[in-house]
Amino acid sequence: MVLIRLLYLLMIRLFSWMAVLARSDTVKDVEILSGPMSEF
User: Fold this and answer.
1) pLDDT confidence bin for 17, thresholds 50/70/90
2) Is residue 23 part of a domain?
3) Residue-number span of the structural domain to which 12 is assigned
4) What H or E segment, with its residue span, contains residue 13?
5) Nearest-5° Cα angle at 14, 4 to 19
6) Does any domain span residue 26?
7) pTM above 0.85, yes or no
């Protein structure tokens, strides 16, 4: 189902963001800047 796939992607996104927020501010800024670009 498409819904299950979307929920799976959302869970990955949330866990990745929690991992980013747990790091230092410098690494977090790099992840934010490079994150959206790496998706395209």
Assistant:
1) confident
2) yes
3) 2-30
4) helix 2-21
5) 140
6) yes
7) no
| pLDDT for position 21 | 74
Place of tokens 């998706």: 39
Please check whether residue 15 is in contact with residue 26, taking contact to mean a CB–CB distance below 8 angstroms: no
- Higher-confidence position of 30 and 16: 16
Per-residue model confidence (pLDDT) at position 38 = 57
Q: Is 21 part of a structural domain of the chain?
A: yes
> Residue 19 domain-assigned?
yes
Handedness of CA 23, 27, 32, 38 (dihedral sign): negative
Number of structural domains in the chain: 1
For helices 2-21 and 25-39, angle between their N-to-C axes, nearest 10 degrees: 150
Residue 20 tokens read as: 């980013």
